[in-house]
Amino acid sequence: GEDVEQSLFLSVREGDSSVINCTYTDSSSTYLYWYKQEPGAGLQLLTYIFSNMDMKQDQRLTVLLNKKDKHLSLRIADTQTGDSAIYFCAASQGGSEKLVFGKGTKLTVNP
Amino acid sequence: DAGVTQSPTHLIKTRGQQVTLRCSPKSGHDTVSWYQQALGQGPQFIFQYYEEEERQRGNFPDRFSGHQFPNYSSELNVNALLLGDSALYLCASSLAGTGVLNTEAFFGQGTRLTVV
């Protein structure tokens, strides 16, 4: 089955860009998502990309997809302390199909 | 729009007991999925309900069961609780079918279950 891997920790300074990386194994995954989880909270959908796209930009967020290498990244421009959270990459074979999550990357933004 | 709502928010149960968790999907959504998130881990898919039937199931034992009601709300039941069932249980709602509108799953705040 699908396996999704992420680095566990990332620390950046306020104002810098953050890049969170993710790899997945199943080439039939057609939808790739980024979710944000703040302490004690549920998951907030940040953005998603279809597998036939290379890039998607949404305000401060840029998602890059390398389908050949099955590599996904999330870039957060001008990172703020409020961006400190755990970020999950998830893959799905269809819009309403189950999501397979990575273990999450804990982003710490230092003032 | 209240989004996805789950109840209760926190729950403490004793080993061997049974528990029922509840979820109301986002308005307009007809599909409910349940996930278990252990501490420090990503969410793991338990099962999904659509048209009151279990549509997909992850690698969870039969102690985990569910139900979907005609109004699309759902329950997750866990029997014979084990210490290892302690986790955050997340409900996600989505719209079945294909197309742009069906790509997003929205999550509730979760129910924190502690088994002692």
Give the topology.
The complex is a heterodimer of chains A (111) and B (116).
Chain A: E1 4-6, E2 9-13, E3 18-24, E4 31-37, E5 43-50, E6 55-58, E7 61-66, E8 71-76, E9 85-92, E10 100-101, E11 105-110
Parallel strand pairs in A: 2-11
Antiparallel strand pairs in A: 1-3, 3-8, 4-5, 4-9, 6-7, 7-8, 9-10, 9-11
Chain B: E1 5-7, E2 10-13, E3 19-24, E4 31-37, E5 44-50, E6 53-57, E7 64-68, E8 74-78, E9 87-94, E10 106-107, E11 111-115
Give an overview of the whole structure.
The complex is a heterodimer of chains A (111) and B (116). Chain A contains no helices and eleven strands. With 111 residues, chain A is mainly beta. In chain A, strand 9 and strand 10 form a beta hairpin. Chain A is globular, with a radius of gyration of 13 Å. Chain B has 116 residues and is mainly beta. Chain B starts with a strand and ends with a strand. The chains are: A mainly beta (111), B mainly beta (116). Chains A and B meet through strand 4, strand 5 and strand 10 of A and strand 4, strand 5, strand 9 and strand 10 of B.
Order of helices and strands of chain A: EEEEEEEEEEE
DSSP helix fraction of chain B: under 10%
Span between termini of chain A: 41 Å
Q: Which structural class is indicated by helix and strand composition of chain B?
A: mainly beta
Q: Residue share in helices of chain A?
A: under 10%
Quaternary structure state of the chains depicted: heterodimer
Q: Could you tell me the strand content of chain B as a percent range?
A: over 45%
